[in-house]
């Protein structure tokens, strides 16, 4: 029975293009959420209130120590205060980022029948490939998005058989982007390590190092929505990763929950959005923040984002606050868990929270 219902579930793109005027009830958010969902284009224009920081990495390796340290301190402070930032002058060329975006967009422009050849099978645990969210919580709510998910690094762990063959340069540009992002991740982890008073390679080692840290790409495709005030592209969550790097097609949608309010991220040209994930928050004993965030949709423009999650191995490493981050006045905030156990804990807690909400 489960299989047949999954097979029958329409892609969100199909719903969007069908001409419906109202969205199915499974996509309507709970009443307590609806009061905070506004027009994303209006939200993005707001100049008052806090703004997601933009960190210019141009001087991150400057030979001038004062200049270099100032740049690194700004990045560290953004990780402490926000846990999210726009990175500019990050060393990845505009051309490569544009080619990655063109390739992903071209895949999603294929007929749905073509994309279905790459469909994943979530029921059997195979999450790589083309998909839409299945209801994995007690409320049965769905998100207004389709996606393509696959491991992109290390290269020897990839399954290229599921990667899109159209467009022809998809594998080439995505692979090069993953390689360059991996180098950027090393640089960021080094700065965050030193910011905690650790040796520069410590955090990278703690999340798996060059051999074990995995980069998973999820291309999120948010079709136009006839009732964007009722839906979310991605519901509120924190990332389980160590770091997350995001490109997007310059259509606003990302919101961060900062100081008790939802703040809409600006569209910063040629930037990469970077999130601190739960893994680094745990290792730093909460000194670096994994911020709650969500994605809004709209009725005028398709939004596409390319998220790359840098994740430690699922079972090999025990995630817990590093001894250097703990003291009598700062006891450990997180119990020891493997990465897999942390994911399961979050899913279980979310299900329990949903059941409690329904009872109320």
From TrEMBL:
Location of the Fe2OG dioxygenase domain: 213-312
Keywords assigned: Dioxygenase, Flavonoid biosynthesis, Iron, Metal-binding, Oxidoreductase, Vitamin C
Cofactor: L-ascorbate
The keyword Metal-binding is assigned to this record: yes
The keyword Oxidoreductase belongs to this UniProt entry's keyword annotation: yes
InterPro entries in the cross-refs: DIOX_N, IPNS-like_FE2OG_OXY, IPNS-like_sf, Oxoglu/Fe-dep_dioxygenase_dom, Plant_2OG-oxidoreductases
Leader peptide range in chain numbering: none
Ranges for region Disordered: 1-27
Classification via SUPFAM superfamilies: Clavaminate synthase-like
Highest taxon listed in the record's lineage: Eukaryota
GO biological process: flavonoid biosynthetic process; pigment biosynthetic process
Family stated for the protein in its record: Belongs to the iron/ascorbate-dependent oxidoreductase family.
PANTHER family: OXOGLUTARATE/IRON-DEPENDENT DIOXYGENASE
Protein name listed in UniProt: Fe2OG dioxygenase domain-containing protein
Taxonomic source organism: Acer yangbiense
